[in-house]
Amino acid sequence: MPAIIDQNDPEGLVSTGTQVTDLEVLVPLWPFPATPGDTDRLDLFWSGVSSDTPVATADFPGPVDSAKFPVSLKVAKNILQPDGQYQVWYTVTTSANNAAFSERRTVTIDTRPPSYNQQLMPLLLPDDLVSGVINEAYLVGHSDQVELRLPSPVYLDAKEGDVVDLYWSQDNPPTTSVVASATVTQAQIGMDDIRIVLPGSAVRAPDRDGNFYATYKVRDRAGNETDSFSRETPATVALKPLPGGDLPEPAFPQADIEGYINCDEAPWNGIVVRIAFVRSLFEYQDQITLYWQGYRTLNGADPIAGTEGVFARKVSAQNLTDGYMDVLVEPFIPHIEPIIEGSALATYRLTKVSGQSGASYPGLVKINRQWPSGEICGPVTQTAQSGSRREGGCKACRRFNRFIARMLQRLGRGGKGL
């Protein structure tokens, strides 16, 4: 019996790292040891080498001293590879050349971490956690916890007994220790449904609101652990609301009086979202997190996957002097380019240095990236359009023409409605 293996483990799993040293095998005293004048030869065998070649041998002249048992033999480290399942057994041969065989014992060597060298995919938030915001009402209504789920399909080489360790931190990768662990069952693997609970105590422990990241690692029974943290799952903690209710919606200084940003404003250079400082709430080093989402319609419906973005900024002394902060939504791809004739919604969350936070109402901007000719404008077409823009007249004239076109649309004289 290998000394480091749990006798109740049918797979005989060797803890990772131990295969870099010789494997100690403990052999008990056999039923009929040699008597005076005879000698027993003990041979140890390993299925990774030829079955008739012992990997260790020892002689025991009679009378055999039972106090020396179990006796230790070694399997050399150079044959403890590659990964796989092996058999170890021994024989006792008497002076009369009679041999007795032990039962074979399975030994499993596994040095590959779960998921191999692939980074684990991000955890999934509950469907009823609106906008990923964890507030007091949610925790009260969900037994003071947030149930997270590993994505489907489950990670590569998932096995019963794997341990999922959950991390919760405002930093990515996390700078905090494990906040929860869960042991994977075969039933969960079969159902492709592995879950882990983020306790409310872990959410409250930092004693502040703001943006947090849930990440995890997986450790198998041999002790192999994934090489890196999983991809992050962002969530917002809002347990310490600011006084006065929701903050006002952000503005879009590039938009015209109708609330449109069009080709003349060169949206491929980014779209500015302006956050006005109100109610004396904004202070130096407070954090503002802007959330952006593009839509196919002009009224913020039918979201365009991939256009979403999160932009975190710190309030500077200059921001306080100006009385506002401008956040530039960029790059053009992926946040703006898919929006041809549609809209975008922007909201922001103010997180105070003190830990309190508050969210804004959503601000809507309409985006039209088509010239009057119907051609789509963008950074590549800008030069080509320069001649046609001159032919189209002054900028104010083009805006007036677009205004008239939209009025005609409202009167039902063709085109898309607002």
UniProtKB/TrEMBL annotation:
Q: Which domain of life is it from?
A: Bacteria
Q: Supply the name of the protein.
A: Ig-like domain-containing protein
The species this protein belongs to is Pseudomonas lutea
Tell me the classification of the organism that encodes this protein: Bacteria, Pseudomonadati, Pseudomonadota, Gammaproteobacteria, Pseudomonadales
